[in-house]
Amino acid sequence: MPNTEPSPGSDRIEVAAGIVTDRDGRILITQRTYPDHHCGKWEFPGGKLKCNETAGQALQRELHEELGIRVVRSQPWATVFHEYPQHRITLNVYRVLSYEGIPEGREGQALQWLPPPDLHEVEFLEANRTVVRGLQLPAKYLITDAQRFGRERVLSRLDATLERGGLVQVREKSLPRAALREFVGEVVAKSRRRGARVLLNADVDTVMELDVDGIHLTSARLRTCDRRPLADRYWVAASCHNEAEIEMARNINADFVVLGPVAKTASHPQTEPLGWRRFAALCARAGLPVYALGGMRPEDLGDAQRAGARGVAMISALWE
Question: Could you give the strand order of the β-sheet that contains 46-48, starting from the edge strand earlier in sequence?
């Protein structure tokens, strides 16, 4: 079912949920119990907001009631919209940065600690699936630009920069097809050795022809899509600049978007940047994971995540 933003109405339910991790990076999930009609399915711990309660307040209360822990620090991670037959859910997801206590199922629910790659093997409530997908995403999205910085430099820097489980967008619109095929092959080889994924900024036919993990849609290509362009086993991302384009991405079930420019960039000096305030407002209504783009450097990661982004997408800062 499309991850569309709910319209105002009495059937809309606001929920807060927490991503709680242990020292090994495993994530805590809880199981619905009888007589809930979702009995047996798994979710991220949390619950409904009470009247006049903020999502942050609900997170603290629910995690104490459900797990017996006290949230010390948390930050927004994503807002997910989902429509069930009976009601519509707005899921306010927070990453719990620190907490006190040892989690236990205080309401008789089962608990599991799982590393992010294993989450997809569990049967989750539908509204949680976007979160599961998003947790597979790293904090940095690396974007190639061999035309400006040179093929050898990009490949060399990729070796030095790419982390295990990373994510790379090959964005080489001016390369001839044969050169693009060769370059993609080298990027894929380096990425696979580190368990990283590669998305290609190109048309669907080219993406299907080459051995990549998904497609990155330009905003122009996004506007031509009326459905998800690839099967679920592929990743689908899109470049967005405003709320309308984010809604388009959400309606085709994109896995994440890149939003910008947040700051002024040398490549688009005439484009008015969003700034962090506007960026944060768009993130809060995005309904899917967002990367900040435009003048981003590694040291901007904290600001991006505090604004509700999954992380930062970088071009120049990587290859300069």
Answer: 46-48, 12-19, 88-100, 70-83
Residue 90 belongs to domain spanning: 12-134
Taking the C-alpha atoms of residue 35 and residue 58, their distance in angstroms, rounded to an integer, is 23
Together in a domain, 148 and 267: yes
Residues 6+ apart with CB under 8 A from 199: 167, 168, 169, 170, 212, 213, 214, 215, 216, 235, 237
To which H or E segment does residue 198 belong?
A: strand 197-200
CA 139 to each of CA 17, 73, 203, 216: distance values in angstroms, whole numbers, following the listed order: 20, 19, 26, 17
193 lies in the same domain as 295 = yes
DSSP of 5-31: PPPSSTTEEEEEEEE-B-TTS-EEEEE
Is the Cβ–Cβ distance between 22 and 113 less than 8 Å?
yes
Question: Residue 311 corresponds to which tokens in the numbers above?
Answer: 């992380």
Tokens coding 267? 């490549």
Look up the pTM and report it: 0.84
SS3 of 108, please? Answer: coil
pLDDT digits (tens, 9 = 90+) for 70-118: 999 998 888 888 887 778 889 999 999 999 999 999 999 999 999 998 9
How high is the pLDDT of residue 7?
45
- Gyration radius from the chain CA atoms: 20
* Spatial separation of the C-alpha atoms in residues 94 and 306, rounded to whole Å: 11
* Exposed / middle / buried, residue 215 (Cβ in 10 Å: 0-12, 13-18, 19+): buried
DSSP 130: H
Distance CA 161, CA 171 (A): 17
Whether residue 257 contacts residue 291, with contact meaning beta carbons closer than 8 Å, is answered with yes
* Residue 77 DSSP SS3: strand
Instruction: Examine the fold and report which residue of 99, 114, 134 is the final residue of a domain before the chain moves on.
Output: 134
Residue with tokens 């079930």: 253
